[in-house]
Write a structure and sequence with these properties.
The chain is α+β, with helices and mostly antiparallel strands. It contains 4 helices and 6 strands.
């Protein structure tokens, strides 16, 4: 997704956005632009410091009914409410994005894979 495409989407004042890897093929500066646009759309304050962009969720205000579904591999720049990890097309784990990233950095995807296996076994038994 390019900056102009994202701006065109935002100008339409949508109730729902599906962003499929919006950072793909985008340089770091524009990744920050995309992250800022998403956070501003959600009513989250974005602070800028000396050429560096910092996003902080001071307020969890939201535009009524707005849902953004964002898929991708670079997750640090968007402050999401809920994150989901899919394995083999199935939900492996879900939860607080910061906690999930911390756990994935600590132990890799082992815990997600364990949850995935437990879910599959539960489905087979049920």
């Amino acid at each position: 997704i390019k900056r102009a495409e994202l701006l065109q989407l935002l100008l339409q004042n949508p109730d729902m956005l599906f962003l499929d890897e919006p950072e793909s093929g985008v340089d770091l500066q524009n990744i920050a632009v995309i992250g800022n646009a998403i956070n501003e759309l959600l009513g989250r304050r974005v602070e800028r410091k000396t050429g560096e962009t910092m996003m902080q969720a001071h307020h969890r205000r939201r535009k009524s009914g707005l849902v953004i579904t964002h898929t991708g591999h670079i997750l640090e720049y968007v402050d999401a409410d809920t994150a989901h990890t899919l394995m083999y097309g199935r939900l492996a784990c879900q939860g607080n994005p910061r906690e999930m990233l911390r756990e994935i950095r600590r132990s890799g995807f082992d815990e997600c894979y364990r949850c995935f296996r437990v879910g599959v076994i539960h489905e087979l038994d049920g």
